[in-house]
Amino acid sequence: MFNIEDFDIKLxxxxxxxSFIYCEKIDSTNSFLLESTIYTQNGTVLLAELQxxxxxxxxxxxxxxxxxxxxxxxxxxxxxxxxxxxxxNLGTSLAIAQSIENxxxxxxxxKWPNDVLICGRKVAGILLESASxxxxxxxxxxxxxxxxxxxxxxxxxxxxPTSIRKEFKDAVSREKFLSExxxxxxxxxxxxxxxxxxxxxxxxxxxxxxxxxxxxxxxKTTRYGIFEDLDSEGHLLLKIDDKIEKIHFGxxxxx
Length: 255
Ligand code: ATP
Description:
Elements: H1 4-10, E1 20-26, H2 29-35, E2 45-51, E3 70-76, H3 85-104, E4 109-111, E5 115-118, E6 121-133, E7 136-146, H4 164-168, H5 174-194, H6 196-205, E8 213-217, E9 222-230, E10 236-240, E11 243-247, E12 251-254
Helix pairs in contact: 1-5, 3-5, 3-6, 5-6
Bound molecules: adenosine-5'-triphosphate.
Protein backbone atom coordinates (compact mmCIF):
# COMPACT_ATOMS: atom_id res chain seq x y z
CA MET A 1 0.00 0.00 0.00
CA PHE A 2 1.05 3.55 -0.65
CA ASN A 3 1.09 5.61 2.55
CA ILE A 4 -0.17 9.08 1.64
CA GLU A 5 0.91 10.56 4.98
CA ASP A 6 4.53 9.49 4.49
CA PHE A 7 4.41 11.00 1.02
CA ASP A 8 2.78 14.23 2.12
CA ILE A 9 5.25 14.88 4.92
CA LYS A 10 8.12 15.00 2.43
CA LEU A 11 6.29 16.97 -0.23
CA UNK A 12 7.76 20.44 -0.34
CA UNK A 13 5.95 21.96 -3.32
CA UNK A 14 3.65 24.88 -3.83
CA UNK A 15 1.33 23.33 -6.38
CA UNK A 16 2.61 20.03 -7.81
CA UNK A 17 0.89 17.16 -5.99
CA UNK A 18 -1.11 19.46 -3.67
CA SER A 19 -4.16 17.91 -5.23
CA PHE A 20 -3.36 14.19 -5.03
CA ILE A 21 -5.43 11.19 -6.05
CA TYR A 22 -4.49 7.62 -5.29
CA CYS A 23 -6.31 4.63 -6.75
CA GLU A 24 -5.90 0.89 -7.14
CA LYS A 25 -6.95 0.52 -10.74
CA ILE A 26 -7.68 2.77 -13.67
CA ASP A 27 -7.66 2.58 -17.49
CA SER A 28 -4.94 5.19 -17.88
CA THR A 29 -3.87 7.97 -15.49
CA ASN A 30 -3.16 10.24 -18.49
CA SER A 31 -6.61 9.73 -20.04
CA PHE A 32 -8.36 10.21 -16.71
CA LEU A 33 -6.72 13.57 -16.00
CA LEU A 34 -7.05 14.73 -19.61
CA GLU A 35 -10.76 14.06 -19.57
CA SER A 36 -11.64 14.96 -15.97
CA THR A 37 -13.75 18.05 -15.41
CA ILE A 38 -13.61 17.53 -11.62
CA TYR A 39 -9.86 17.37 -10.98
CA THR A 40 -8.85 20.65 -12.54
CA GLN A 41 -6.36 22.06 -10.04
CA ASN A 42 -3.05 22.89 -11.72
CA GLY A 43 -0.45 20.34 -10.64
CA THR A 44 -2.91 17.55 -9.76
CA VAL A 45 -1.16 14.17 -9.48
CA LEU A 46 -2.91 10.84 -9.96
CA LEU A 47 -1.07 7.74 -8.78
CA ALA A 48 -2.51 4.34 -9.71
CA GLU A 49 -1.27 0.89 -8.76
CA LEU A 50 -2.56 -0.65 -11.95
CA GLN A 51 -3.28 0.87 -15.35
CA UNK A 52 -5.26 -1.40 -17.58
CA UNK A 53 -4.62 0.69 -20.66
CA UNK A 54 -1.37 2.43 -19.76
CA UNK A 55 0.55 3.38 -22.87
CA UNK A 56 3.68 4.88 -24.32
CA UNK A 57 4.29 6.61 -27.63
CA UNK A 58 2.60 4.91 -30.59
CA UNK A 59 0.52 2.97 -28.08
CA UNK A 60 3.54 1.06 -26.85
CA UNK A 61 2.56 -0.31 -23.47
CA UNK A 62 4.19 0.24 -20.10
CA UNK A 63 4.00 -2.89 -17.99
CA UNK A 64 4.26 -2.58 -14.25
CA UNK A 65 3.46 -4.78 -11.24
CA UNK A 66 0.92 -3.18 -8.87
CA UNK A 67 2.13 -2.10 -5.39
CA UNK A 68 5.81 -2.23 -6.37
CA UNK A 69 6.34 0.70 -8.71
CA UNK A 70 5.25 4.25 -9.44
CA UNK A 71 2.87 4.91 -12.32
CA UNK A 72 1.34 8.36 -12.19
CA UNK A 73 0.40 11.44 -14.16
CA UNK A 74 0.87 15.13 -13.47
CA UNK A 75 -1.69 17.56 -14.90
CA UNK A 76 -0.81 21.15 -15.83
CA UNK A 77 -3.34 23.64 -17.12
CA UNK A 78 -1.86 27.03 -16.33
CA UNK A 79 -0.42 29.01 -19.26
CA UNK A 80 1.35 26.21 -21.10
CA UNK A 81 3.38 27.54 -23.98
CA UNK A 82 3.57 25.14 -26.94
CA UNK A 83 7.28 25.89 -27.40
CA UNK A 84 7.97 24.69 -23.84
CA UNK A 85 6.65 21.17 -24.38
CA UNK A 86 10.01 19.61 -25.26
CA UNK A 87 11.70 21.28 -22.32
CA UNK A 88 9.02 19.94 -19.99
CA ASN A 89 9.58 16.51 -21.53
CA LEU A 90 13.35 16.69 -20.97
CA GLY A 91 12.78 18.28 -17.55
CA THR A 92 10.61 15.38 -16.38
CA SER A 93 13.39 12.89 -17.11
CA LEU A 94 15.84 15.26 -15.42
CA ALA A 95 13.68 15.44 -12.26
CA ILE A 96 13.62 11.63 -12.08
CA ALA A 97 17.38 11.42 -12.67
CA GLN A 98 18.15 14.01 -9.98
CA SER A 99 15.89 12.21 -7.52
CA ILE A 100 17.58 8.86 -8.14
CA GLU A 101 21.02 10.42 -7.71
CA ASN A 102 20.02 12.33 -4.56
CA UNK A 103 18.32 9.46 -2.78
CA UNK A 104 20.20 6.39 -4.01
CA UNK A 105 23.52 7.71 -5.33
CA UNK A 106 23.15 5.75 -8.57
CA UNK A 107 24.59 7.14 -11.79
CA UNK A 108 21.84 7.93 -14.24
CA UNK A 109 22.12 8.42 -17.97
CA UNK A 110 19.48 10.25 -20.01
CA LYS A 111 18.60 9.32 -23.58
CA TRP A 112 16.86 11.86 -25.81
CA PRO A 113 14.14 12.82 -25.41
CA ASN A 114 13.12 11.33 -22.07
CA ASP A 115 14.44 7.86 -21.30
CA VAL A 116 16.00 7.36 -17.88
CA LEU A 117 18.67 4.66 -17.84
CA ILE A 118 20.90 3.09 -15.22
CA CYS A 119 23.83 1.07 -16.62
CA GLY A 120 22.14 1.01 -20.04
CA ARG A 121 18.89 -0.32 -18.61
CA LYS A 122 15.60 1.53 -18.66
CA VAL A 123 14.17 2.51 -15.31
CA ALA A 124 11.48 5.00 -16.39
CA GLY A 125 9.23 5.90 -19.30
CA ILE A 126 7.45 9.21 -19.86
CA LEU A 127 4.56 10.17 -22.13
CA LEU A 128 3.27 13.72 -22.61
CA GLU A 129 -0.24 14.21 -23.94
CA SER A 130 -2.18 17.40 -24.36
CA ALA A 131 -5.59 18.80 -25.14
CA SER A 132 -5.70 21.94 -27.26
CA UNK A 133 -8.32 24.38 -28.41
CA UNK A 134 -7.04 26.11 -31.54
CA UNK A 135 -3.38 26.92 -30.92
CA UNK A 136 -3.81 27.01 -27.18
CA UNK A 137 -2.83 24.08 -24.98
CA UNK A 138 -5.61 23.80 -22.42
CA UNK A 139 -4.17 20.87 -20.55
CA UNK A 140 -0.95 18.94 -20.48
CA UNK A 141 -0.60 15.58 -18.78
CA UNK A 142 2.74 14.00 -18.09
CA UNK A 143 2.51 10.26 -17.64
CA UNK A 144 5.37 8.59 -15.81
CA UNK A 145 6.16 4.93 -15.18
CA UNK A 146 9.11 4.09 -12.94
CA UNK A 147 10.39 0.66 -12.00
CA UNK A 148 10.92 1.03 -8.28
CA UNK A 149 10.73 -2.19 -6.26
CA UNK A 150 9.94 -4.70 -9.01
CA UNK A 151 12.46 -7.52 -8.55
CA UNK A 152 12.41 -8.96 -12.08
CA UNK A 153 11.01 -8.44 -15.59
CA UNK A 154 9.45 -10.97 -17.88
CA UNK A 155 9.12 -10.60 -21.63
CA UNK A 156 11.10 -8.86 -24.36
CA UNK A 157 12.00 -5.17 -24.37
CA UNK A 158 13.88 -3.06 -26.93
CA UNK A 159 15.95 -1.65 -24.06
CA UNK A 160 16.42 -4.07 -21.15
CA PRO A 161 14.53 -2.88 -18.04
CA THR A 162 15.81 -2.48 -14.51
CA SER A 163 14.43 -1.13 -11.24
CA ILE A 164 15.80 1.03 -8.43
CA ARG A 165 15.66 -2.02 -6.16
CA LYS A 166 17.76 -4.08 -8.57
CA GLU A 167 20.41 -1.37 -8.87
CA PHE A 168 20.33 -0.13 -5.26
CA LYS A 169 20.25 -3.74 -3.98
CA ASP A 170 17.48 -2.92 -1.53
CA ALA A 171 13.80 -2.01 -1.56
CA VAL A 172 13.12 1.72 -1.35
CA SER A 173 10.28 3.93 -0.09
CA ARG A 174 7.95 4.83 -2.95
CA GLU A 175 6.48 7.64 -0.83
CA LYS A 176 9.82 9.35 -0.30
CA PHE A 177 10.85 8.80 -3.91
CA LEU A 178 7.64 10.28 -5.33
CA SER A 179 7.80 13.37 -3.13
CA GLU A 180 11.46 13.90 -4.12
CA UNK A 181 10.51 13.65 -7.81
CA UNK A 182 7.66 16.14 -7.47
CA UNK A 183 9.84 18.55 -5.46
CA UNK A 184 12.51 18.46 -8.17
CA UNK A 185 9.93 18.65 -10.93
CA UNK A 186 8.32 21.80 -9.58
CA UNK A 187 11.70 23.52 -9.37
CA UNK A 188 12.48 22.52 -12.95
CA UNK A 189 9.06 23.65 -14.13
CA UNK A 190 9.60 27.06 -12.54
CA UNK A 191 12.86 27.26 -14.49
CA UNK A 192 11.08 26.57 -17.80
CA UNK A 193 10.32 30.25 -18.18
CA UNK A 194 12.94 31.76 -15.84
CA UNK A 195 16.01 29.79 -16.90
CA UNK A 196 15.39 27.15 -19.59
CA UNK A 197 19.14 27.10 -20.35
CA UNK A 198 19.74 25.55 -16.93
CA UNK A 199 17.36 22.68 -17.68
CA UNK A 200 19.03 22.07 -21.04
CA UNK A 201 22.52 22.18 -19.53
CA UNK A 202 21.63 19.94 -16.59
CA UNK A 203 19.95 17.49 -18.97
CA UNK A 204 22.98 17.50 -21.32
CA UNK A 205 25.35 16.85 -18.42
CA UNK A 206 23.58 13.51 -17.90
CA UNK A 207 23.45 12.51 -21.57
CA UNK A 208 26.30 10.23 -22.58
CA UNK A 209 25.22 10.17 -26.24
CA UNK A 210 25.95 13.86 -26.70
CA UNK A 211 28.81 14.28 -29.19
CA UNK A 212 28.58 10.63 -30.25
CA UNK A 213 27.72 9.03 -33.59
CA UNK A 214 24.06 8.13 -33.39
CA UNK A 215 21.19 6.71 -35.40
CA UNK A 216 17.76 8.38 -35.32
CA UNK A 217 14.81 6.36 -36.55
CA UNK A 218 11.21 7.36 -37.09
CA UNK A 219 8.46 5.47 -38.91
CA LYS A 220 9.74 6.58 -42.30
CA THR A 221 13.45 7.33 -42.16
CA THR A 222 16.70 6.44 -40.51
CA ARG A 223 19.30 9.17 -40.15
CA TYR A 224 22.93 8.82 -39.15
CA GLY A 225 24.99 11.65 -37.74
CA ILE A 226 26.62 13.19 -34.69
CA PHE A 227 24.53 14.29 -31.72
CA GLU A 228 25.76 17.88 -31.91
CA ASP A 229 23.58 19.65 -29.34
CA LEU A 230 20.06 20.51 -28.23
CA ASP A 231 18.50 23.71 -29.54
CA SER A 232 16.88 26.25 -27.21
CA GLU A 233 13.56 24.41 -27.40
CA GLY A 234 15.01 20.97 -26.66
CA HIS A 235 15.09 19.54 -30.17
CA LEU A 236 18.01 17.28 -31.06
CA LEU A 237 20.52 18.80 -33.47
CA LEU A 238 21.99 16.08 -35.66
CA LYS A 239 25.11 16.85 -37.66
CA ILE A 240 25.03 15.04 -41.00
CA ASP A 241 28.22 15.75 -42.98
CA ASP A 242 28.41 19.53 -42.69
CA LYS A 243 24.73 20.20 -42.23
CA ILE A 244 22.72 20.43 -39.02
CA GLU A 245 19.31 18.83 -39.02
CA LYS A 246 16.73 19.52 -36.33
CA ILE A 247 15.05 16.38 -35.01
CA HIS A 248 11.59 16.73 -33.48
CA PHE A 249 11.02 13.08 -32.61
CA GLY A 250 12.50 9.66 -33.19
CA UNK A 251 14.21 6.74 -31.51
CA UNK A 252 17.85 7.44 -30.82
CA UNK A 253 20.55 4.81 -30.46
CA UNK A 254 24.34 4.64 -30.64
CA UNK A 255 25.64 3.73 -34.06
P1 ATP B 1 11.52 3.63 -26.09
O1 ATP B 1 12.35 4.73 -25.54
O2 ATP B 1 11.85 2.31 -25.48
O3 ATP B 1 11.54 3.61 -27.58
P2 ATP B 1 9.14 5.18 -25.83
O4 ATP B 1 9.88 6.38 -25.40
O5 ATP B 1 8.57 5.15 -27.18
O6 ATP B 1 10.03 3.89 -25.61
P3 ATP B 1 7.91 4.85 -23.27
O7 ATP B 1 6.58 5.32 -22.80
O8 ATP B 1 9.10 5.49 -22.68
O9 ATP B 1 7.92 4.94 -24.86
O10 ATP B 1 7.98 3.33 -22.99
C1 ATP B 1 7.30 2.33 -23.69
C2 ATP B 1 8.31 1.28 -24.07
O11 ATP B 1 8.99 0.83 -22.90
C3 ATP B 1 7.65 0.07 -24.66
O12 ATP B 1 8.06 0.00 -26.00
C4 ATP B 1 8.19 -1.15 -23.90
O13 ATP B 1 9.01 -1.91 -24.73
C5 ATP B 1 9.06 -0.59 -22.82
N1 ATP B 1 8.58 -0.96 -21.49
C6 ATP B 1 7.32 -1.28 -21.10
N2 ATP B 1 7.27 -1.49 -19.79
C7 ATP B 1 8.52 -1.30 -19.33
C8 ATP B 1 9.10 -1.37 -18.04
N3 ATP B 1 8.39 -1.66 -16.96
N4 ATP B 1 10.42 -1.09 -17.94
C9 ATP B 1 11.16 -0.77 -19.01
N5 ATP B 1 10.68 -0.71 -20.26
C10 ATP B 1 9.36 -0.95 -20.42
